[in-house]
């Protein structure tokens, strides 16, 4: 085959990237690596958020310390944006080629051995994306309510805690938040284990533990994130 | 037993098909699924109708020729069993059974329940072999191979290339088939030599044939009549990354 001679020629780094992107397996590597980056961010974000339950100014100081290092902050922001864009683009392209590969379905029954999480992975992913856009507009950019970003505490720092309380006092915001985090965790309960298989790091021996890891991570994240809107709605926070 | 069959009938690859109902009467529970279809076909011949076309050959579960999605499951619901080894005692009298061909754009329907699986042959041609130019077959134990490797290679080599993995996968992905072939050859010293070229070319061909991608669900493994493991897909994922880097650095 022509491809065989060609594929064994020396290729440039850019050529390698292109070959990766064009192949089915390479695109799954992209999904796995960007997925891992985004998962890492979500974990760090939850830990950051939980400082909400500490001293009244703790989370404000944490936010201030993040903003005091613009190169790291913007580096992380652009890195995560690139990871998210690659993750979504690869997912849409893969889903499209999957649909083309199976244009006619079967009459009898659902997909063998599938779970709710993996059947809905695209829907949960896209819903989470829509949520992230709103979430950034709400708490980072201030398009929803510009006053939220102008709140300050006694030390003159941006009052992140006050902003969270004000934001989550709106039941619609809290409900959308809890539903989206729920879908994110459903997404991760399949996705986190999937990272290992796509990178070739799963085996029969580790399978059960990887599935448990994904499930436990998803559950911890769900309660870690949802504790805040629930606490605000239940009037537990002064 | 008396059964009702809902069978996919399609004249050729160009026309569209539809389900047609047939009554399968006086079926012995000791018949295989294919023998039951033979009986139905004999009835169709006697009444001057067109027989139902389906693939079959050895009828002992080793050739990979029989197919059929039975009630939504490739080779039927019985695990680790090909259609030819599925017996009618696993059905109940009065059951309605839906019979469909493998569904994948890379496996176009030729007629009724028969699909064109030459895409698999082209994948094998692209690298699923060991190039041996000269000499006779070596002695069995001339090349020492660790037992564990031999076992894993043998488990992968059990793949009969029937395509049930593609049929089961919601993305019509051929990863389980390709990974079984890649694993079987790359685990052994004879096949190791061409590992890099093999994995790059076979995956290139697999993608070119229009098979879908793996979403790590495991339908293929569940449907496989030879119980080929998802571990092979993980191994192929590793070998492909290694091959890309090796190709870059060499």
Question: What's the arrangement of secondary structure elements?
Answer:
The complex is a heterodimer of chains A (238) and B (250).
Chain A: H1 2-7, H2 13-22, H3 24-49, H4 58-67, H5 70-101, H6 116-119, H7 121-141, H8 160-168, H9 171-198, H10 204-233
Chain B: E1 3-9, E2 18-24, H1 33-46, E3 69-70, E4 73-74, E5 96-100, E6 109-111, E7 114-115, H2 118-125, H3 147-157, H4 164-168, H5 175-186, H6 189-192, H7 195-208, H8 219-223, H9 231-249
Parallel strand pairs in B: 1-5
Antiparallel strand pairs in B: 1-2, 3-4, 3-5, 6-7
CATH superfamily of the largest domain in chain B, called what?
Answer: Alpha-helical ferredoxin
Mean pLDDT of chain A: 92
Characterize the biggest β-sheet of chain A: none
Query: Oligomer, anyone?
Result: heterodimer
Classify the helix fraction of chain B into a percent range: 25-40%
According to CATH, what is the class of chain A?
Mainly Alpha
CATH architecture of chain A: Up-down Bundle
Strand order of the largest sheet of chain B: 2-1-5-3-4
Overall geometry of chain A comes to: globular
Q: What does the model show?
A:
- Chain A is 74% helix and 0% strand.
- By secondary structure, chain A is mainly alpha-helical.
- Chain A has a single domain (25-101, 118-233), classed as Up-down Bundle (3 helical TM bundles of succinate and fumarate reductases), CATH 1.20.1300.10.
- In chain A, helix 3 runs parallel beside helix 10 (204-233) and helix 9 (171-198) runs antiparallel to helix 10.
- Chain A is globular.
- Chain B is of the alpha+beta class.
- Chain B folds into two domains: 3-110, Ubiquitin-like (UB roll), CATH 3.10.20; 118-136 and 143-249, Fumarate Reductase Iron-sulfur Protein, Chain B, domain 2 (Orthogonal Bundle), CATH 1.10.1060.10.
- Helices cover 37% and strands 11% of the residues of chain B.
- Chain B has a five-stranded mixed β-sheet with strand order 2-1-5-3-4.
- In chain B, helix 3 runs antiparallel to helix 5 (175-186), helix 5 packs antiparallel against helix 7 and helix 5 (175-186) crosses helix 9 (231-249).
- The model of chain B has no long low-confidence stretch (mean pLDDT 95).
- Chains A and B meet through helix 1, helix 2, helix 3, helix 5 and helix 9 of A and helix 7, helix 8 and helix 9 of B.
